[in-house]
Amino acid sequence: MIMKKTIFRKTVAILTTLILTLPVLLGLTGMMEVSAAETTQKVTLHKRALLETEKPEGGIVNDGTIKPEFPGKPLPGVIFTAYDVTSLYNQYRLANDSVEAAFNKLKTADTTGLTTYTYDATNEAGTSSFDLPVSSTVNGKIMNAVYVIKETTAPTSVVKADNIVIALPFYQEGTTTAMTEVNLYPKNYQIQQTLEFTKYGADSNGENEVVLEGAKFVLKDGNNKYLKVTPLASGLPDFSGVTVKDVDVREFTSTVDGSVVAADLALENGTYTFEEISSADPYHMTNLAGSIVTATILDGKITYKYYDAQGKELTAEEGATAYNYDVPTPVKTVDDEDADLDQVLNYTATLKIPTDAASYTTFDLVDIPDERLALLSELGTLKATIAGTDIELTTVPTAEGENGFRFAFYGNPTDKATIIANIGKTITIEFQMTIKEGAVIDSPISNELIFENNFKDSKDTAKVQTHGKKFVKVDAYKDTPLAGAEFLVLRQGTDTTEYRTYDKDTKVYGWTTNREAANRLILVSGAEGQFEVSGLATGDYQLEEIKAPNGYQLPVQPLFDFTVTETSYTDSAQILSVPNSENGILPSTGGKGIIAFVAVGLSALLVGGIYFYKRQQFA
């Protein structure tokens, strides 16, 4: 079958050559003189653009007749030039070349300096005509004219047609009658290109990439005009969209494997750019969205310019990629999550600078603490640094709410440039806060850090808690509540004992090693015997009773141990009873010291009993 097709094509080619060379074959010497009446012949060129799939099997013979069945679509704007090569033809023939051999040489011969006839550009119907002289003077003789017709200007979206060699006058088939109009069909094949790349989503570090389905793109040419869905009448792509919102602008969507494909487009030499118009969650478009992938076409060869996951520009003929990114999450930490009231808490806020930092227009770190927290650091002293460097950012924070702050970094051009220049490094802010009086006990107290940006806000929260313990003062034997007892709260260190303090003027809690400090905290049992201590971290503490209720005596061992847990304040089952005995009755508080005291008393009674018993025996 292949051999038959080849033979057929060769046969058509030979036949076409014979037809186009018929005028010279009619001459006895291959060149003949013509009468003065035969001056010109109208040669009309029918320019058609064909797709590869429309190639006629074996070709179509250019026999000068109209061919309404010729495939393809009219191609306007093509300019042809006819070169008078009669003299060259004469040279080849005198050198004993056959007509066919001479014509083949003429197709590629140097036509510099020869007489030319330039056609007008083909019209919308793809046609252009010229009345070419049918004769040419060679060495003083008027000869049948031979021309090479070349395509000198054509859209770069098509492969230029082969040069045509024609001898005039052109005769009707099988006669010696010149045709009134010669119709020729130089063929152009549209170069169909496929532009493609793969779309990925990555984290803010440009890592952990995944193929991204559902991102949308449009394609624009070098004049920033957008490709439309409906092609031109010629079958060529229609790049006439002014904006992406124009009616009929064609969209390309990344598939399940991240592929973005613009297939079978007959594109001219030039630059074509994919512009991203929407991403897919949780990833956002970057500042490169307007030129996410650029394809440059030159005579059928495609070269892509694109960016890797780290934003580095790359160039290749295949394998182009495009990336969108997730927003980084800030990190908020505190040095002690289990704290006393008024304890100095050291907070650290950090944010790793994202790979696409240049894509952001808003870049704020905002601290939003619970109203039960107070900022100890002076607002004007807060600084942001880039970790691992000596760089201190110059943005001055502003107050946010009652006790928070905001660093609006991109409002400071210098800091914006510094941040973009330090991608992958970490911004750090350190500050101090404390839990205020009145905080809810055994309840998380949040301090929220928000990264506010123009894509999607992200946040982190550091939580602290403070706790306490409830007590009830009771009669040791009657279990009735006792009012008016006074206590100190203390904790044992490695070498020291610290006492809880409270400054009534500043309303600030603390600790001191001075038992007799003027601001020591004194707890007093109420009418129902109840009293409590709050604002303590979990741990082991002691009560020291320093004043007994009226009519009661201090215990010999006044220290009473208790433990603060995460629920010891709110759980009623953990309320501890602290007993007292009336005057004249052996006091007992349940503390460690009472055991020894009772043991000594029992020993004395036992010794006394034995003594009196023996005296009675010897009496």
Unreliable stretches, pLDDT < 50, 5 or more residues?
Answer: 1-36, 586-598
What would CATH call the class of the largest domain? Mainly Beta
What's the CATH H-level superfamily name of the largest domain?
Immunoglobulins
What percentage of residues falls in helices of 4 or more residues?
10-25%
CATH topology of the largest domain: Immunoglobulin-like
Label the CATH architecture of the largest domain.
Sandwich
Q: Structural class, please?
A: mainly beta
Instruction: Supply Rg.
Output: 50 Å
Shape: rod-shaped
Query: What is the number of independent domains?
Result: 4
Number of strands: 46
What order do the strands of the largest sheet run in, or round the barrel if closed?
A: 19-16-21-22-23-24
Number of helices: 6
C-alpha termini separation: 150 Å
Mean pLDDT comes to: 88
The biggest beta sheet is recorded as: 6 strands, antiparallel
DSSP strand (E) fraction? 35-45%
InterPro entries: Fim_isopep_form_D2_dom (IPR026466), GramPos_pilinD1_N (IPR032364), Ig-like_fold (IPR013783), LPXTG_anchor (IPR019931), SpaA_PFL_dom_1 (IPR041033)
Domain Gram-positive cocci surface proteins LPxTG: 586-615
Organism: Vagococcus salmoninarum
Pfam families: Gram_pos_anchor, GramPos_pilinD1, SpaA
Key traits:
619 residues; mainly beta; Immunoglobulin-like; 4 domains; 6-stranded antiparallel β-sheet; 6 helices; 46 strands; rod-shaped; disordered N terminus
